UniProtKB/TrEMBL annotation:
Gene3D superfamilies documented for this protein: Peptidase S8/S53 domain
An annotated GO BP: proteolysis
Family listed: Belongs to the peptidase S8 family.
Residues of the Peptidase S8/S53 domain: 48-315
Signal peptide residue numbers: 1-23
GO MF annotation, one: serine-type endopeptidase activity
Designated name of the protein: Type VII secretion-associated serine protease
Any Pfam family: Peptidase_S8
Disordered: annotated segments: 330-354
Organism: Nonomuraea cavernae
Source taxon at top rank: Bacteria
Length: 403
């Protein structure tokens, strides 16, 4: 049978500090990431208002106080995998959604998780199961779930998404996914995906780590993870698909039922980059996916020697600098069109306060398996992403095998 499910490896679930923590502790735990991405400065320009980010994942808890009012629950493409009456756990999806557009809670939204684009809307599209769910095995083997990612992408585009976050990865590409990505880019949608977490599982293979899809498709922003020193995290895949990177170690985020999690992975880094893309699209709604990617790459910090390497791409995304670069790019575009770009902005939202439980979760892998793709030329798509030509060699047929 074909394999195509999501696998979430969990290192453990323990209380941070040995017991319940104040919500203020969560925001303090986020501070290093907020500073690395230069978010306080970026929020003076954009907070993501008016942008819809689709989260293709395991589902999002719309009632978490840091997400309340921001989530639209969309299609569940895994329906039928779990036994009747079994509710989805929605842990990984909620976690990613909070990093993208969490708005905190309490007075001024100063407690709980604040996302990169706190005024953006979220569209939950369920395309994976967590390995704790009883239907995981069926989802992992049944042919009817083969193209859930492709269907999820098309659905998100048709629902008006401006950015699609895919903190998931798979070994093999399918023709349907390639077509869905081409469709999304043709509609101006920015696609962001995880480079994968197999970087530490390839002893004796120094040249590169496995390619992952959809990250390795042309036109998709492939994201690697950095550690606290902003170097490639040991688990993060390194190969020529990696475009940019973001923090991916000890990342604080929300979980279902008003819980909070600390974890690691390219999943988290991807969600942060999707948030930066949302900030850019809010400020410059007509900017093409290629120019959004260029704004993030040209403005990245902690660039490797020579300007690019396969571990961290062009460097670590910086939201404030990316917005400045996007304004420069948009200025050329708008002058060519004879008009000015708009400048939406709004304050951060609220919610209710109260004690929270903080647990630690190690996201070492999120994987979706599929069938091999028929290699096909995508000249039009490649022309949209000219910047990738110098740094990417995409494998079109069978992806690399696991270590």
């Amino acid at each position: 049978m074909l394999r195509r499910a999501a696998a979430l490896a969990v290192a453990g679930a323990v209380l941070l500090g040995g017991g319940p923590a104040l919500a203020d502790d969560v925001r303090a735990g986020q501070q290093p990431v907020l500073d690395t991405l230069a978010l306080p400065e970026a929020w003076r320009t954009s907070k993501g208002e008016g942008v819809l980010v689709a989260v293709l994942d395991s589902g999002v808890d719309p009632h978490h106080r840091d997400l309340d009012g921001s989530v639209t629950v969309g299609e569940d493409f895994t329906e039928g995998a779990n036994p009747p009456g079994v509710a989805p756990r929605r842990l990984h999806g909620t976690y990613m959604a909070s990093l993208i557009a969490g708005h905190g809670h309490g007075p001024g939204g100063r407690r709980g998780v604040i996302g990169v684009a706190p005024r953006a809307g979220l569209l939950s599209v369920r395309v994976i199961l967590e390995d704790e769910e009883p239907g995981f095995r069926d989802f992992n083997s049944a042919e009817r779930f083969e193209d859930v990612v492709a269907r999820g992408i098309r659905y998100a585009v048709d629902q008006g998404a401006h950015v699609i976050n895919m903190s998931i990865s798979k070994e093999l590409a399918t023709r349907e996914e390639r077509s869905a990505i081409r469709y999304a880019i043709s509609k101006g949608v920015v696609l962001v995906a995880a480079a994968g977490n197999d970087g530490a599982r390839r002893p004796g293979h120094a040249a590169s780590a496995p390619y992952s899809y959809p990250a390795a498709f042309p036109g998709v922003v492939s994201v690697g993870a950095t550690d606290r020193r902003l170097r490639r995290a040991t688990f993060s895949n390194w190969n020529s698909s990696v475009l940019v990177s973001a923090p991916g170690v000890d990342i604080m985020g929300a979980g279902p039922g008003d819980e909070y999690w600390v974890g690691r992975g390219t999943s988290q880094a991807t969600a942060l980059v999707s948030g930066v893309a949302a900030l850019i699209k809010a400020k410059f709604p007509e900017m093409s996916p290629a120019l959004v990617a260029q704004a993030m790459t040209a403005s990245a910090t902690d660039r490797p020697p020579g300007g690019y390497d396969t571990g961290t791409g062009f460097g670590v995304v910086n939201a404030a600098r990316a917005l400045t670069e996007a304004a420069r790019l948009a200025g050329h575009t708008e002058r060519a069109r004879g008009r000015q770009a708009q400048d939406p902005s709004a304050p951060v939202g609220g919610g209710s306060a109260g004690p929270i439980r903080v647990v630690v979760r190690d996201q070492t892998r999120v994987t979706v398996y599929g069938t091999i793709a028929v290699a096909a030329g995508t000249g039009a798509l490649a022309s949209l992403m000219l910047i990738y030509v110098l740094v990417r060699r995409v494998r079109r047929a069978q992806g690399p095998q696991d270590a």
